[in-house]
Write a structure and sequence with these properties.
With 223 residues, this protein is an alpha+beta fold. It has helices spanning 2-19, 202-222, and strands at 22-28, 32-33, 38-48, 54-66, 72-77, 83-88, 104-109, 127-128, 131-136, 171-179, 186-198. It is globular, with a radius of gyration of 23 Å.
Length: 223
Amino acid sequence: MKTTLGILLLLLVALTSRASSTNATFTATPGLTVPDANPVGLVSTLTVGDMTGNTINLTVNLDITGGFTGDLYAYLVSPTGTIVVLLNRVGMDSSNPFGYGDAGFNITLDSASGNNIHTYQSGGYTISGGQLTGTWAPDGRTIDPLSAPSAFDAGPTGSTLTSLDGTDPNGVWTLFIADLSPGGESTIVSWGLTVMTVPEPQTWTLLGGSLAACWLMNRKRRK
């Protein structure tokens, strides 16, 4: 019994260590110019692989230079087809029909952030080399990016990165981006994902139960 118990203990330790979260970053460097004033836009993909378990947190990194931030519309598509709107004419509303005029982004998008990218100029923000920097919540507005400016007055409609929690991150991810207003061209220098996962709990939970049962049997035999 001691031998069996020892083996189970070793297995539990091994599986418990695997139950810890894993974190990895995947990056694409397309270096592509976004066609100016063209809703067809362009697509860039990257592949996530060798991740164990399901997503518990995912953030997006964007490095886009040039053009005007208020011209851009971008969304992310997961391997399972879930769409998250990252940018939707940031700054555009009934009082600003053109959106913000800064020249690009070097940012992290994280739904845990309390500051939505669409209204970044309404509070503190930093521009470095013409690009917005920092960590922001994705835009989330699922309305047509060619809608009237007043349509952007409403808050985000729930298109957030948390919709990807609990899903398998492995596979091909797609970034779509388009420039929807004339004047200036943007370039996607790079973009990427930082993915955190945890294994499904069934295996190590069952083993823990087996270990507990074995320990109880061992105690009974000693009495």
